[in-house]
């Protein structure tokens, strides 16, 4: 079945997420949806459909960085599995430690997720300006993980 792309407008979710989280940090918990959605689709056998058709962050990079991007090629060492896996381990470790320190405090948990989303978005924006607009997608842990989950034929 052919699935329509929503990348033209789904960036609205990313902007809304940041605005809402600034208004009330508890909205930061919505970041779990952003992290879970690609995995959900992949586990359902839909491969990287989230990246190709829905992802608000991918949509944002594509929409807003295309005009200002220097469009350089990513250095080869950043595209290696070693780099991508190291990034997954690093981000996962930081997230676990941060969540551990947040305890059961909803505001602290929300802030942890918000901070992760913000930091990775800032890195993604810089990468998108220096290299191609969606360069972050080359190293994005969610993209790497979903790429490894077998797609249903
Ligand atoms: S690789 Fe990451 S940022 Fe890029 S489209 Fe997929 S989930 Fe979104």
Rounded to the nearest angstrom, the distance between the terminal CA atoms is 12 Å
Kindly state the number of beta strands: 0
Oligomeric composition of the shown chains: single chain
| Helix content class | 55-70%
Shape summary: globular
- Indicate the low-confidence ranges by residue numbers: none
Q: Could you say how many structural domains there are in total? A: 1
- Mean of pLDDT: 95
Residue fraction in strands: under 5%
Q: Over all CA atoms, what is the radius of gyration?
A: 16 Å
**Bound ligands, each once:** iron/sulfur cluster
Q: What structural category do the secondary elements indicate?
A: mainly alpha
Q: Count the helices. How many?
A: 8
Order of secondary-structure elements:
HHHHHHHH
Largest sheet: none
Describe this structure in words.
The chain has 153 residues and is mainly alpha-helical. The chain has one domain (11-147). It has eight helices and no strands. The chain has helices at 11-23, 31-46, 49-54, 56-65, 81-102, 106-130, 136-139, 141-148. α1 crosses α4 and α5 runs antiparallel to α6. The radius of gyration is 16 Å and the shape is globular. The model has no long low-confidence stretch (mean pLDDT 95). Bound molecules: iron/sulfur cluster. The site of iron/sulfur cluster has 11 residues, from α3, α4, α7 and α8.
């Amino acid at each position: 079945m052919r699935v329509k792309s929503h990348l033209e407008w789904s960036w609205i979710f990313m902007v809304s997420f940041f605005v809402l989280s600034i208004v009330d940090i508890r909205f930061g918990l919505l970041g779990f949806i952003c992290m879970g959605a690609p995995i959900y689709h992949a586990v359902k056998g839909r491969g990287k459909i989230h990246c190709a058709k829905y992802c608000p962050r991918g949509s944002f990079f594509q929409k807003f960085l295309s005009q200002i991007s220097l469009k350089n090629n990513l250095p080869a060492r950043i595209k290696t599995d070693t780099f991508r896996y190291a990034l997954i381990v690093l981000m996962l470790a930081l997230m676990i430690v941060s969540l551990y320190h947040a305890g059961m405090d909803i505001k602290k948990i929300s802030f942890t997720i918000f901070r992760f989303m913000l930091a990775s978005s800032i890195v993604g924006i810089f990468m998108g300006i220096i290299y191609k607009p969606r360069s972050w997608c080359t190293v994005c842990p969610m993209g790497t993980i979903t790429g490894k989950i077998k797609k249903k034929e």
